[in-house]
Amino acid sequence: MSAVRLIAIDIDGTLLDSNFQVSARNLVTLRQANALGVEIALATGRRHTFALPVARALGFDVTLISSNGAITKASDGKLFHRDPLPLASVLELVAHMTDFRRNLVITFDREDKGALVLETLDELNASIRKWLEKNSQYLHFVCPIESALASDPIQAMFCGTVERMIAAQTQLKKNKGLLTRITALKTQYDERDLCMVDILNKGCTKGAALKRWAAFKGYKAAEVMAIGDNYNDIEMLEFAGHPFIMGNATEELRDRGWRTTLCNNENGVAIAVESVLEGLE
Q1: What is the CATH number of domain 87-201?
Q2: Domain ranges of the chain
Q3: Burial level of 109, CB count in 10 A (0-12/13-18/19+)?
Q4: Would you say 86 and 152 are in contact if contact means Cβ atoms under 8 Å apart?
Q5: What strand order describes the sheet that includes 63-66?
């Protein structure tokens, strides 16, 4: 097996425990990897600003793949790549998904009011509502939401209960033409009855962003490790030569032959990373 030179790690459900903290053992192990010259990248569905506190907690510079691959930046904010969702696709999406517009949040690559655009909080799941409240300074309520769409956003997200998002995915599949121009990625937490369906530009995934960054740095897939727990991690796990899934990973990831580490409350990231660091020391 090739030595690992780049490790890509999902944040929620993977690096963070159920209290949304990075454990002491995970911190120690990732700092050890960094000291050995292994590059660490965080690959998340969070937007860049909301992922930054996690990156800073590590105590060293990382690459941040955010919004499920739509933005790749250094932790100091230097942009490497942006993959926006074309405005025409967003307008068609909103028109087609009109029954789910109260579950919709649209994200723009900006750091002021209007970074997150939505019509209302009324039908959003309680878990995501807390996230929105933490980002209150960036929220812009516009009804109808089309009135706020004048440029390409980074992504659109439908969010709600699992049952509600199953209905949303069924509706989305009815527009086959639109599906040829977008990527739809699901993140689901059954224990919280929470599901998010992210809509991105065609071909935009964590995996595509990780592959692009690895090529830029001169890393082969065999030198890349990826750790994830959910549906939106599949593409980066498929790309990496060393894929690991968490013990708390969703069932759909479990029958693909990927190595399984412990869950996010049992230092699963540290256990996985330690297993590949042994040959580097």
Answers
A1: 3.30.1240.10
A2: 6-82+204-277, 87-201
A3: buried
A4: yes
A5: 79-82, 71-74, 63-66, 39-43, 6-9, 224-228, 242-245, 259-260
Q: Is 197 helix (H, G, I), strand (E, B) or coil?
A: strand
d(CA 90, CA 75): 28
pLDDT of residue 281: 47
- As a whole number of angstroms, the longest Cα–Cα distance in the chain is 57
Strand partners, 158: 104, 197
Across 68-72, 126-130, 255-259, least confident range: 126-130
For position 198, what pLDDT does the model report?
Answer: 97
Report pTM: 0.92
Going by C-beta distance under 8 Å and a sequence separation of 6 or more, which residues neighbour residue 187?
A: 45, 195, 196, 198, 230, 231, 232
The Cα–Cα gap between 255 and 204 comes to 24
Distance, in Å, from the CA atom of 145 to the CA atom of 120, rounded to the nearest integer, reads 10
pLDDT computed for residue 256 by the predictor: 94
How many angstroms separate the CA atoms of 227 and 246, rounded?
Answer: 7
Residues in the chain: 281
Instruction: Give yes or no on whether 6-82+204-277 and 87-201 have one common fold.
Output: no
Q: Rounded distance, CA 231 to CA 141, Å?
A: 29
Distance between CA atoms of 165 and 162, rounded to whole angstroms?
A: 5
Instruction: Give the fold, CATH level 3, of 6-82+204-277.
Output: Rossmann fold (3.40.50)
Distances (CA, A) of 122 to 18, 91, 198: 25, 22, 19
Mean pLDDT of the chain, nearest integer: 94
